[in-house]
Amino acid sequence: MNTRVALPSVAPRSRVPRPAYAVLLPGGVRTAATDVEESPAMTPSATDSPVPRGRSRRNFAGARPVMADVARLAGVSKQTVSRVLNDHPAVRPETREAVLDAMRTLGYRPSRSARSLASGRTRMLGVISFDAARYGPASILTAINTAAQEAGYLVSSIALDTADHDTVVEAVNRLSAEGADGVIAIAPQQWVGQTLARADLGTPLVVLENALDDSTPLVTGDSRTGARKATEHLLGLGHATVWHIAGPAGWTSADHRLASWQATLQAAGADVPAPLVGDWSAGSGYDLGRRLARRPEVTAVFASNDQMALGLLHALHESGRSVPGDVSVVGYDDIPEAAHLLPPLTTVRTDFAEIGTRSLRLLLDRIDGPGERPRVDTLVPVDLVVRASSGPAPGR
């Protein structure tokens, strides 16, 4: 559903495609894209004389210089200019210098479409994200956009608010149709990874959080280590055991944190309470926190993200349970607000920006060197940030 905007002209026009930005909303896909159409009057004819050195940096129509201008001034073909743009090794040094000199004289800067023609690439990357409003996915997407811009790429982002099989397939097909050079999928749920693994994408793919197969690169935060550090921290403060507010079942990070919490308690010989399952929201943390606040034996709680920990703190305060005097609380993610809660929240810091940057580097590596290769798993380290919400067990 691209919107085409034409420059006013009575002459026939040729369409120059530009990469589109797409956002998939609950009601369907909304794209914001433009196809700029050029009039022949914007392009110099073959009879135009070269622009003398040191003179105007515009062609006769006042338009920016194009590849044909460079070719005429350098005395070469447009194909040779294209090869210079693409750093082709077969171009003689003196020819390359003549082309570069012509570019400097004309003030020529290759357009994105010219680079695409020269390299056979669109210089556009696709990103599929889920639950993009949450702090983690939003931070990752911001980092991907920043790194892509620095590398000379545009990003077409599709945010899925409703994650079902048909929606995922539609997103994959749309990015393929747009000609994405590669795709990064922020796939937090296991079934999403399985759907992507079956999709015929036809372009390099990097996945966050879910391992798809033996070749698709995986980038993720080290959730198992983070949960172990959180649980060991609370046990080290003298708490007999640690209760857990888990994320939704089927979310890879939630499942990994749950499994690591259980394993850490078992290794310490501590009782393993039944986990309480939330939905990542502060509201679910509050509801589950009210249940925990009524149990005097609960002295330490590890929440699978900071939003649920925030709701837990609210419930404990409302119930008259002091933190950390009566109950110690540890969250996960280290959202910007964590240091400013009352009390400041002990949490596990995930470097979401690093996850986004590493995934972009991996994707560009796959684009530059296509072919079968073993899967590369990148576990981004996490850190325990100790603040005032965790303390010694009551009576110690």
User: Secondary-structure element sequence?
Assistant: EEEEEHHHHEHEHEHEEHEHEHEHEEHEE
Using only C-alpha atoms, the radius of gyration works out to 28 Å
Q: Poorly predicted ranges (pLDDT <50, ≥5 residues)?
A: 1-58
Count every helix, treating DSSP H or I runs of 4 or more residues as helices. 12
Provide the helix percentage. Answer: 25-40%
Q: What's the CATH first level of the largest domain?
A: Alpha Beta
How many domains, as an integer? 3
Secondary-structure content class: alpha/beta
| Total number of strands | 17
Q: Would you identify the CATH H-level superfamily of the largest domain? A: Response regulator
How confident is the prediction overall: mean pLDDT? 80
Strand order of the largest sheet: 7-6-8-9-10-16
Descriptive report:
With 396 residues, the protein is α/β, with parallel strands linked by helices. Helix content is 37%, strand content 19%. It has helices at 67-74, 78-85, 93-106, 112-119, 135-150, 165-177, 190-198, 223-236, 252-267, 282-293, 306-318, 352-368; strands spanning 5-6, 14-17, 21-25, 28-32, 35-38, 124-130, 154-160, 182-186, 205-208, 218-221, 243-246, 276-277, 300-303, 328-333, 346-350, 377-380, 382-385. A 6-stranded parallel β-sheet has the order 7-6-8-9-10-16, sandwiched between helices. Strands 12-11-13-14-15-17 form a 6-stranded mixed β-sheet, with helices on both faces. Strands 1-5-2 form a 3-stranded mixed β-sheet, with no helix packed on it. Pfam families: LacI (PF00356), Peripla_BP_3 (PF13377). Residues 34-56 are annotated as: Disordered. Residues 65-119 form the HTH lacI-type domain.
